[in-house]
Fold:
Amino acid sequence: MPLDVYEPCPCGSGKKLKFCCHAIAGEMERIARLEENNQVRPALHALEQLERSHPGNPWVLTHRAGLLIEEGDNAAAQQLLGPYVESHPDQVFALMLYATAALRADGFEKAKSAIHRALQRGRQEFPSVVGSLAFGIAAEMAARGKAMAARQYLVLALQSCAESARQTVFVRLLEMDSETSVPYPLRSVHELANYSGTEENEVEFKKAARLSGIGCFAPAARRFAKLAEQEPENAALWNNVGLCRAWDGDHAGAAEALHRAARLHGEFGMAVECETIAQLLELTADENVISTKVYPYRITTSVSRLLTKLDSHERFGRIPIPPAEPDSDEDFPVAGYHIFQRAASPEPSTDTPTADVLTSVLGGLTIYDAAGDQPAKAYVNALEGETAEAIRTLLQSAAGEDLEPIAAEVEEPLPVGSVPRDYAFLQADGNWFVPPKVPSTVRRRLEREKWWRIVADGWANKAFSALNGRTPREAAGDPELKLPLTAGLYVLDALIDQDRYVLDLPAVCDFVHVELPPLIEVADSASMNAYSAVQLLRVPIERLTDPQLVQTLNRALLIRHKLLLYKVLREAVSRPGCLEKIDVDVSYSTLVQICREQDKRDEAFQWLEKGRAWAKTQEKAFEATLQWELRELFLRAEDPNDPNLPPLLKRIWDYYGVKLPQLRERLAALVEIYGIPAPWDTTGGAGVAAAFGAPTTGGIWQPSDPPAQSGQKLWIPGQ
Ligand SMILES: [Zn+2]
Structure:
């Protein structure tokens, strides 16, 4: 598009182009055409020439820098703009580009002061550049495990970004809020605390809050801290210092301030939340984590010889590996093993096994064939230190000369994750092998038992630095330690909640003699979107208005704290006013799922009945009801003695199978895989139930697959 000489000059002078950079307009147009034709090199070359003839022209300079950034040459863009922004502090666009290049070249910490200047100056004129800058910071923070900072920068990105980027940013925000690898108290919304003080201090407070609002969290934290020095007993100020430091990615500083806020808060619930966040942030410090690493081994003889040895060893359990994608270039393992802490029994010796039959899994072993110039290798995946050492010794005795560790100088063990040192026992004990013959219903009872042991024997007797080196059992009943102990319960809950298990929090409270913080009063006019995840756990669900309940449900579906979700769903499906505003099908199936996971089988069936009854009243009742029949099938299949399983299979076969021949194919495949006498071929009966034990094959037909998710995918008629 030709340039309009009566428009403001692109150099940012404020003058019309005709009276400013008119002399270079023709050449700039030519350069723009080169770019349109993807001739980036010639365009950059021409810009360089132009810069020589018109040194310091901001139009040429910023254009060239922008192009360099687009090309990924951030260091060059940074070098080009650095001296210029120092001598021209009013050139806001150059400043924005400089901050972007610096972030990408050096990372947030080194680029911080340039970023803060850009965020303060660019908000009015270049909101979309602020948006993309904030999005870039969020990505870096997420990669560094700074979840609270990542979220806060995403919020800023959402407020400032271009319309075309909104959807991407919004989806990323939702993903962050439901990222279960992050403990739930750190996820979702956290709001700055309010403050009242002298007029002068309130002005200062507002300045700090404004800095926080535009993403300048470190300067905001410093201002809050200055106020807090004047009023060292003010919980709200320390609370805000803590939050702003966390949003800046400074976990140690945040934890320190939040510990102080916790001690000062008059309201116990707020105190506990501050202390919980402080404890969780401390757990992520480098010195407080143990890495999971992948250790390389060379297979010195033959892969098949090694597999034979491992297959017959009682402390190695084969993991089924799916076949490689035909066109994949990736190296694909030929075998995988669980490495057990002790010999794993293939099946329990009694009908009513206890959690003793569960063997902890120390780590994993993956085996690759030789490929190209690479020899055959094996990789051990384990926590570094004691565990990795134990596995090394075990492998030496199990594989002998067939396997030798590769020296770290040749191939360094690769860190793939980390766990908090204080809670490494959750990783070590919370990962176990269930003998394949154990039916799912028994498996869940055993898991419940096992988790209780981990809490009652493991956690309760472990000394924690947050409890001044005392154990929860010792701290129970000590008023001095009531606050850190209650927060410790939330920490435990959050770490176990991460897709592992639903902790019976009230039961653990009883066990260590603490009470959970009291419920929060919620005004009818309050928006539930302002409540943090921990606060939502304290909301009196039954007293919420219908719109508040729907809002809370949407939050709970994202956060996925199981107990919260359960309470909210149960209330929502009971209110006629909410049914129109929620996905009833998903609500009932989630309730079934939660009850199933918690080994509340009877209640799961009750929700299943309600879901089916609802489905029958809906459009497309046939398909919808079938989904519920299949959910029941998955649930019943977990109990080999369930007398209702054969008639259910037969009912699905007879009634739905007539219209859906594919369904019959799948049912037939199902009974064949598990060796069930098909109730439609024979008289059915007890044989079916007896044969429907837990299968040894993995894969999509495993009845323990969650029906709420996988059932949907698998069974949609016509697929
Ligand atoms: Zn100009």
